[in-house]
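Q: Can someone sanity-check these two? First one:
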Amino acid sequence: MEILKERYSITELSKRLSVTDHALRYYEREFNINIPKDKRGRRYYTPELANIMYQIKTMRDDGLEIKAIKKIFLEENVLSEPPPVVNETEAVSISHMQVNNTAIEIKQFFKEFEEQLTNNFSLEVTCAREHLSNEISKTKLELGAYFDNNIRKLEGKLDKHFENVDQSIGMWRERNKGGIFKRLKQIVFK
């Protein structure tokens, strides 16, 4: 996309890309893109962000799904995976701990370090579990929608097929309405 400005408002960018404002906000959420805001709290897109939105829109137009685009972006380092959330108070900060050379203080240091490490690890596992659970739920919904869509298509094809069968049976009945005597009469008196 040709960059003409240093900043685009959401309306300007949506017009330029021929998408809705809602689509841009959806892409922001799905791809975890932090869009800066001006003093009045309105979004603005830098040339780099505008280019990312253009790439997403182009790939969507080509038929790629959001998951595939995310994978491409991660492989090409267009977007990076968000770092795991760790509170500053939970982070291990060795530089702030004063470790003396006595055995008691060293044992205490390692005990505190073990507790912090255990807490951080369990927090990471919980976050990963929640993330996986959310991904499984999304995939389950996508599969459900996919199957529903295919079932509707199949039902439509079956309805059309049975309409054709009904028409054929009706035409056959019309032709054979008089029974065997009518057909014999038609054959004999031709």
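And here is the second, same format, sequence then tokens:
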Amino acid sequence: MRFPSLVIELIRARPRLVVWIVVLFQAALWLILPVLLYRSPPGDLATVLAYGREYQVGTVLGPPLAFWLGDIAFRAAGNHMFGVYLLAQLCAIATFWTLYLLARAIVGGQQAVLAVLLTMTVTAFSSPGVEFGPLVLARPLWALLLLHSWQIMGQGRRNAWFAWSIEAGLLLLTIPAAIGLLMLVTGFALATERGRRTLMSFDPLFALLVIVVLALPYLIWLMRADTLALPPWPAIADLAGSAATRKMRRSSFGRRSIRWRGISFISSPLPPRSREV
């Protein structure tokens, strides 16, 4: 008689416990190793802390939320990198737990555990998660946004709109690609019948108002920095000069190709003459 593995039985009986065990173990691993082995901040973490000390509304690196939180965690730990490493692992824990809740709502608890375990094998969720920055902070925000999007469109829970709007606004303050991610969610809503029915209510208007209020300081900074302005049109003289340059290049290329054809014809061997019998 064959007995199932203890791990399989544990996933079947206590899926939530398995998720907490593996997620906390990985978080503890990537919290202890950098503190013991790293003598300096890895990757671009030093740049994140340098920009965070200024508390600017916007920088050339993007929206400011990740930089602010990185400096706050650094100062809260007594100017030690332990606070920043801890913040990065809290983001990882929130990401995996939200992924588990989303998968459990769609496919069930046991399959949700497998989804979390398979996601943890991706390299991007291991050592790169130590380098706290906009990408690390965007992971839990994007996961929460997807969870509440499913609750709104898939389960019809209107009370999730407020949390969805907060997460969307914070995501806009975290990475420049947030607009594209929100467009993906909007496109999915427009492509499904439930999504179109959800968008017909007044809740999206209130959510849009909250998003604009949250992202308004960064939007003002973008407008003052001329980041949203279109590039200037080239002058007519520049267009004429570029057209003349292209014409000269085409003519020189044509003469060069004719010259090479002539050389290749001259240097090619003549075919052998047929001998008469």
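A (reply): Looked at the second one. The two ends are 91 Å apart (CA to CA). The chain is about 70% helix and 0% strand.
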